[in-house]
Amino acid sequence: xxxxxxxxxxxxxxxxxxxxxxxxxxxxxxxxxxxxxxxxxxxxxxxxxxxxxxxxxxxxxxxxxxxxxxxxxxxxxxxxxxxxxxxxxxxxxxxxxxxxxxxxxxxxxxxxxxxxxxxxxxxxxxxxxxxxxxxxxxxxxxxxxxxxxxxxxxxxxxxxxxxxxxxxxxxxxxxxxxxxxxxxxxxxxxxxxxxxxxxxxxxxxxxxxxxxxxxxxxxxxxxxxxxxxxxxxxxxxxxxxxxxxxxxxxxxxxxxxxxxxxxxxxxxxxxxxxxxxxxxxxxxxxxxxxxxxxxxxxxxxxxxxxxxxxxxxxxxxxxxxxxxxxxxxxxxxxxxxxxxxxxxxxxxxxxxxxxxxxxxxxxxxxxxxxxxxxxxxxxxxxxxxxxxxxxxxxxxxxxxxxxxxxxxxxxxxxxxxxxxxxxxxxxxxxxxxxxx
Length: 436
Ligand SMILES: Cc1ncc(COP(=O)(O)O)c(C=O)c1O
Prior knowledge:
The protein contains eleven helices and 15 strands.
């Protein structure tokens, strides 16, 4: 493990220029200044090489600059760059056909293409209101859904995201997300904690705050991302689906971070055996080219002409990048994640046994959270140690990204090989030791 001299002179100069002209709202943790990337590796502007366990916040699903994705973009760029969603073109329809074929619903579905995750969420919220004629939503604490006004209202991972922006969207109530590592509600006999949370929604929220008949949708990440890579207990989605069915509420799965093969299935909700009514996608869908989607059952996405739209939705460059990404995931990377995901989790679990501050390792596929605590029994969050590990790893050529109070999210490109996993874990393990 070699210590790099960071930031190098070119990186330093660019950070200084950035600080003068770029909005100071961006949450930058360390000064990585990218020059180029290839597969699981990236190089900064000073020629330093890094390995990637965060893939641009779970976006570079096919690795950096996959030649087939690049070629698809180049070929499309020579034909046309834009026509707008008021007109028709082949890659937009073909992408929607592909997305509906892999959507986790048996009923036929339809697609609204967006430019980002937050816009996909905004679309889902508007659609749910339109379809049900109801105004209210239930969300979950710890959730992250984006930064536009509706999505940021549903977001409840940090109050900082709301600070200075009130009033937010009307009609949103949050329930605790069923975090098995940190349950906060009283669990009754024979109940799993997911069932407890649904009982809380039914008995407390519907009874005391908002009547079920006035709730349009329940918006939930099948596995929480920004909230700490948290996997809900088995009973949660079964009971949540029942609750929605009993009350005519739409179940909206936000798969922006957890979908597109990250858990070894197309959608994380498939791990829980229920069908949502609406899903949102973005991030890994197009290998880094801005693209999002709101996919809904045919009977739900039934709104009139002109009721929702955008200029760039279905941009041809985004669509061909999306199509090629989905093709590569289907051909190679679902299998890669299924083969190597359990190995990665096992290795991290082993590493955790020898570290006094790793309280929990959890995950499915290439979506793994490592939570740091000051004491394994009390589970007090340990952000100081977490931040130290992230910084030391950076100094030794490994890119990591934190989430929640004291978690590191392990979200490599879906193309990462076993040898590359070993290489990155060697630096991770070394960084954990140096940070002690
Ligand atoms: C689950 C989830 N939903 C929505 C978003 C917002 O996506 P974007 O940043 O593309 O607007 C994110 C981004 O991190 C996310 O993780």
